[in-house]
Structure formats: structure tokens, C-alpha cells
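dumping this here so i dont lose it
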């Protein structure tokens, strides 16, 4: 009885084992055939030397028709058993949609234990075959009625072994070949638009981070277009030459790190973080140089380097955020997208997770999302710089103006007046200056208070602006004294302007209290520059002397200064002061 139980157990174990190792098969009937999800077998060839006769006798493991086997499976064989369960022959097409990234593809068609047909495709010599179309290998074959056919597919990749195979009828095959990668074209188009936008920003700002960001975008769009077949589909190019564009996988993080160093100014303000970024750039640059000699070998540790880059950049970002950098929170948001989606892609390329749209397109999605966020970072930085510049301009304006009247102050007047005088000398045009003073202003303060005095000063400043020309330079020198420089005005023109001001001020009426009205007048002194030898200080002195005469003659009037008389002593004194 025990012996019978043991025999039964052995038989059950053998049955379970047989079922467990049964090779996957695909049934094909008369209905429309569009097989895009099924199971196949695979065998990794680490020696890269196995022949068809050798590999057909070896065991195969089971996987899906879309799979990723990592970097240690550069040569892999795939076995697909097709059973025609119908009573008619089936005209079918094998599609290998990711063939554009391979070094070579071999297809062997076996029926009843004999090799019926084979197709050997070297992607450096696609002119020798007609089975390559827009990056997809299309192998047509006939599946006889009620028979089985076994296909062996040898895939020789440059670095990562990610593979897909589909079985289609003629209609599905044509439809699949004429369709375009709309999503990939959209990604590339968005990155191109950002490159153009950022180029305009560079010409406007001349910031080096714009250059690094543009180069990052270009590297990213090249890699996306290459890895997802857009270059192969559009330009119909493959093989070793086009594969070298995978160098963009190293230039992309290098330019991202340079962008971080530039926009966060790590060299000046964050030396520790700067050294970490420098070290990572050195490592990536070394791998890039290695890639010029052996791109396939250099790409093997690419996934590990990507993981290291993510850790370092995130750590630096968090460190800068803790130190209060205003932009880094936006960078961390975008970079988190990049890390998340690239992390999924790294797991896929290493063969650790099953293929899906998200895993196979993770790098492209991450690049685009981060690129959009970095564009916002750049734009926000420009806004911050503009706010700082506006604040600085406001500080300069405050330093150059009188806080009560909002007219220029004495210091700014002299700086600007000397500049305008030099321009007038070059253009051989006249310049005049006038000084005016409020008559009996102390009495206004004494009788009505300083609040009323401030109102008088403010109203007078407004009147001076209204009655002067747009090119005139108006300043408050202090107290109740004001100065106006009149470029392009001779003594006659200056006198007309002074008379307008005098009449307008005389007509002013201001309320000081209940039923109390304050009226003021001004006295003015005018001087025209001797353009050959007179300075601003000298002309102001003459205008001030004229003002003194106007006040002594009864106030509320205009007085012209005597022509300038410059002595040798004046010239010597001016030369010493200069």
C-alpha cells in the first residue's frame, strides 16, 4: 500500500512538472488575427555564439511577448509555437516593433522538425533585406492549415535587451505600419518648443543657465526620438552609427547638473553641494569619454549611474531647500517626477518589472515633465530678478528724489546737470538754469503750521512740473528753494518759462483752515550758460545772485543774471577741483 502511494506521488509530481514546463503555444483560427498579448519562450546566450541547430535543443523559459531581460542578456533567443487550428492556410506577419535599437535580428521558421526558411538581418546593412520598415521588422510567412510552425528569433542588442513581437494578419499589419508614434512626436515637439523659447531667453538675458538648459533639452529630445523609434521611423537609419546617439544619455544629466550649479549659484553660496555635483559630473564625463571608444560597454552601467544621479540631485535639492533657496522647491517638484518615472524605467530596463507603457516610456515622460518644470524655474527666476531690479531702481529713485515733493534732490541734480551740459556742448545748443524761492515762506509756517507749509511745497512742485518742459531737470535744493535746468533754452526761452511759472504760482490758492486761504508768490533768478567755459556751479552762482536781486527789488519777479565773466583764477580753481 505504501509502495502504491509512493508511485502515485511520483506520477503526480512528474505530471505537475510536465505541466509546469510545457512550452507556451499560440492558437490561430480563421478570425481576424491581431495577436499582441501572448506567452513565448526565451533563452539567454551569454556566449553570443549559439547556432540555430544548437539552441533548438536547449530549454526555454517562459515570458510575455513584450519583455525586458536587462543588460546581461545582450543576445537572447525567443521561441514562438503557432498552431493553426483552422482548415485554411493563414497568411501572417511577424512584427518586431523595437528592432530599430538592435544590432541584428535572425528569424528561423521551423516546421515538422525541419528548417523551412530563415532571415538574417544586420541593421548596419539594411539595404540587403526588404523586411525592415520604419524601424519595424516585418516577416511574412504562411501558416499551413491544421499544422504547427515554430519561430526562433535571435535578438542581438547593443546594451539592454528589451523585446516585443506581434503576430498580425495583412490588415492589422498594414494598419500598424502606417500608424505614427503620436505620443513620441508630441514629446519631441514640446522639447523643441522649449529649446526655441529658451534660446530667446538667452538672447534677452545672456544667462549661462539658459545654455545648459537648452543643451539638456536637446540631449533629452535626441534620446527620446532615438529610443522610441522616431528617428528610425522618420529617417530610416539604424545600426552602429545611429546607436552612438545614445551618448545623449550621458550628456543629458551632465547638462542638468551644470544647470543646477548655475541657477542655484552653488559655487558662490553652497560649496559642499557644489563639490558633490562636480564629483558626479566628473564620473559622468568619464563614462561619456568611455562611450566614444565602446558605447555598448559604457551603457551597461547607465542604469546604476542614473540611480546615483537621482540620489545626489535629490539630496542636493533637499539640502538647498533646507537652507532656504527660493527656487529649489520648484526644482524638487519637477525632479521628483523625473526620479519617479526614471526609477520605473530603470527597473524595466534591468528586467525587474514587467513591461507596460509607463515602464517602457518612463524616461521620456520624466524628461518632459522635468523640462516643463525647469522652464517654470527659469521664468520664476527671471521674475525674481526683475523684482530685485525694480526694488533696486526704487531705492535709487528714493536716493535721488526729495521724499516730500518727489522732485530730484541736490545730489542727483548736479550729476545729471553735468551730463546734460556735456551733451549740449557736443550738440552746440544753449542751456539755461533758474533758481526760484518762495516769498515769505517762513511766515506761512509760522502762521499756519508746518503741515500747511508742506502742502505749499507739494503744490508748488506739481506746478513746476506742469509749467516746465518734459526735458527740463527740476530739483528741490532744500527748504523753499528750487532749481530748474533747461537744456536747449537760451535766456529768452528760459525767461518765458519763468514767467509762466511765476503767474501760475501767483494764481494758486490753498486752504489752511476754516475760511482761510493761503496764496504765495515766488522770486526767480535766471542765468544762461557760457558754453565754452562755464560750469554748472558757476552758472548756479550767477542765477542765485539774480534771485537775490529779485527779492531785494520787491519779490514776485524775475531777474536775469549778468553774463558770465570767467577769470584765470576761476579756471585754475575749477581745474584743481576737477
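and the seq i came up w/
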Amino acid at each position: 500500500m505504501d509502495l502504491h502511494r509512493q508511485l502515485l506521488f511520483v506520477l503526480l509530481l512528474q505530471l505537475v512538472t510536465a505541466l509546469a514546463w510545457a512550452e507556451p503555444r499560440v492558437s490561430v483560427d480563421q478570425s481576424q488575427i491581431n495577436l499582441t498579448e501572448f506567452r513565448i519562450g526565451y533563452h539567454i546566450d551569454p556566449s553570443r555564439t549559439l547556432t540555430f541547430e544548437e539552441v533548438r535543443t536547449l530549454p526555454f523559459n517562459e515570458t510575455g511577448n513584450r519583455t525586458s531581460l536587462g543588460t546581461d542578456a545582450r543576445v537572447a533567443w525567443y521561441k514562438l509555437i503557432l498552431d493553426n487550428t483552422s482548415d485554411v492556410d493563414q497568411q501572417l506577419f511577424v512584427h518586431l516593433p523595437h528592432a530599430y535599437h538592435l544590432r541584428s535580428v535572425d528569424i528561423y521558421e521551423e516546421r515538422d522538425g525541419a528548417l523551412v526558411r530563415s532571415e538574417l538581418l544586420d541593421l548596419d546593412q539594411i539595404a540587403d533585406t526588404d523586411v525592415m520598415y520604419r524601424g519595424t521588422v516585418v516577416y511574412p510567412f504562411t501558416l499551413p492549415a491544421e499544422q504547427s510552425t515554430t519561430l526562433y528569433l535571435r535578438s542581438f542588442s547593443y546594451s539592454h535587451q528589451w523585446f516585443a513581437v506581434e503576430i498580425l494578419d495583412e490588415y492589422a499589419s498594414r494598419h500598424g505600419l502606417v500608424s505614427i508614434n503620436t505620443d513620441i512626436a508630441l514629446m519631441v515637439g514640446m522639447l523643441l518648443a522649449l529649446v526655441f523659447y529658451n534660446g530667446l531667453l538667452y538672447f534677452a538675458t545672456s544667462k549661462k543657465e539658459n545654455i545648459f538648459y537648452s543643451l539638456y533639452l536637446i540631449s533629452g529630445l535626441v534620446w527620446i526620438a532615438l529610443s522610441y523609434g522616431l528617428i528610425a521611423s522618420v529617417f530610416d537609419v539604424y545600426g552602429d552609427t545611429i546607436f552612438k546617439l545614445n551618448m545623449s544619455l550621458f550628456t543629458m544629466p551632465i547638462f542638468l547638473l551644470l544647470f543646477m550649479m548655475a541657477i542655484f549659484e552653488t559655487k558662490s553660496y553652497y560649496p559642499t553641494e557644489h563639490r558633490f555635483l562636480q564629483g558626479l559630473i566628473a564620473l559622468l564625463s568619464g563614462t561619456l569619454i568611455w562611450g566614444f571608444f565602446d558605447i555598448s560597454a559604457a551603457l551597461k552601467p547607465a542604469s546604476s549611474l542614473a540611480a546615483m544621479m537621482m540620489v545626489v540631485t535629490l539630496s542636493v535639492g533637499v539640502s538647498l531647500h533646507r537652507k532656504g533657496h527660493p527656487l529649489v522647491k520648484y526644482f524638487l517638484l519637477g525632479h521628483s517626477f523625473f526620479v519617479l518615472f526614471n526609477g520605473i524605467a530603470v527597473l524595466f530596463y534591468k528586467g525587474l518589472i514587467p513591461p507596460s507603457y509607463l515602464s517602457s516610456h518612463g524616461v521620456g515622460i520624466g524628461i518632459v515633465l522635468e523640462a516643463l518644470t525647469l522652464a517654470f524655474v527659469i521664468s520664476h527666476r527671471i521674475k525674481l530678478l526683475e523684482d530685485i531690479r525694480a526694488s533696486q531702481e526704487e531705492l535709487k529713485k528714493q536716493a535721488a528724489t526729495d521724499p516730500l515733493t518727489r522732485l530730484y534732490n541736490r545730489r542727483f541734480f548736479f550729476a545729471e546737470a553735468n551730463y546734460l551740459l556735456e551733451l549740449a556742448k557736443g550738440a552746440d545748443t544753449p542751456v539755461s538754469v533758474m533758481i526760484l524761492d518762495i516769498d515769505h515762506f517762513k511766515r506761512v509756517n509760522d502762521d499756519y503750521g508746518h503741515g500747511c507749509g508742506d502742502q505749499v511745497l507739494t503744490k508748488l512742485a506739481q506746478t513746476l512740473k506742469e509749467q516746465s518742459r518734459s526735458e527740463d531737470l527740476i530739483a528741490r535744493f532744500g527748504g523753499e528753494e528750487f532749481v530748474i535746468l533747461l537744456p536747449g533754452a537760451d535766456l529768452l526761452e528760459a525767461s518765458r518759462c519763468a514767467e509762466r511759472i511765476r503767474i501760475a504760482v501767483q494764481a494758486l490758492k490753498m486752504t489752511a483752515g476754516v475760511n482761510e486761504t493761503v496764496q504765495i508768490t515766488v522770486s526767480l533768478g535766471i542765468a544762461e550758460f557760457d558754453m565754452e567755459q562755464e560750469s554748472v556751479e558757476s552758472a548756479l552762482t550767477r542765477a542765485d545772485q539774480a534771485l537775490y536781486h529779485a527779492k531785494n527789488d520787491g519779490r514776485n519777479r524775475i531777474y536775469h543774471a549778468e553774463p558770465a565773466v570767467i577769470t584765470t583764477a576761476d579756471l585754475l580753481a575749477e581745474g584743481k577741483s576737477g
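The chain is about 55% helix and 20% strand.
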